[in-house]
Amino acid sequence: MATTTISTEPKWWSGGKSPFNVEYGKLMMWYFLMSDAFTFGAFLIAYGTVRFASNGWPDPNEVFQSFPGLGSGLPLLFVSLMTFILIVSSVTMVLAVKAGHERNKAAVIKYLVWTIVGGIAFLACQAWEWTHLHHEGAWWGSNPFPNADGSAATANFSNFFFTITGFHGFHVLSGVVINIVMLIMTMNNVFEKKGHYLMIEKAGLYWHFVDLVWVFVFTCFYLI
Fold it and tell me: Is 17 contained in some domain?
């Protein structure tokens, strides 16, 4: 007669683990990032469709050629600085996560502070760029820059630029706020009492996603 073995193994829904053997909160963060990636993807696909269906488009080397304090005639130099700042902040976020795994509170605080500074610096750069373009007459519904062939351009360029970079900037701002919350929790020994720094890792996933999206935004608007 066959015997039935009853497993005493804890179920994933009662043990805080997902069916993929990943911590539940981290899995939910991945689901959120996937849905957010679809949103960014839809924006960029719409941008690419309109751009390549148009007869002409402004030359990014002519549009983005100003640098605060140095004047114009410096194509893409300022946005390269913005990209460098965001990449460095991604490195400091990696170091904060690593320090969290090692339960090194002082290092977590140090690298979170540098990540926050990098995010604020990026937002400040974007604010200057938006202000500069607005002073030149660019805004939603208004595009003063001619196409690369000299013909008059539509407002599609500025509409997409301000919408997509603004949406990304909102994500950077959200990431800065999240990291500030993580910093406060770290300083108040919340993670030390829990015995782990998993929340830092989840915040790191979001921050790396924001940095990765910028690579696509940078490529679509400033390089192509």
Answer: no
pLDDT digits (tens, 9 = 90+) for 87-121: 999 999 999 999 999 999 999 999 999 999 999 99
pLDDT bracket for residue 55 (50, 70, 90): confident
Using a 10 angstrom Cβ sphere, with 0-12 exposed, 13-18 middle and 19 or more buried, the burial of residue 96 is buried
Asked if pLDDT for residue 27 goes beyond 90, the answer is no
For residues 76 and 60, the answer to whether their CB atoms sit within 8 Å is yes
Contact 168, 43 (CB under 8 A): no
Domain-located, residue 130:
yes
CATH number, domain of 194, equals 1.20.120.80
Q: What residues pair up with 142 in beta bridges, in sequence order?
A: 139
- The amino acid at residue 86 is L
CA pair distance 118, 87, nearest whole angstrom: 9
Give residue 203's domain range: 40-223
Residue 29 lies in a domain: no
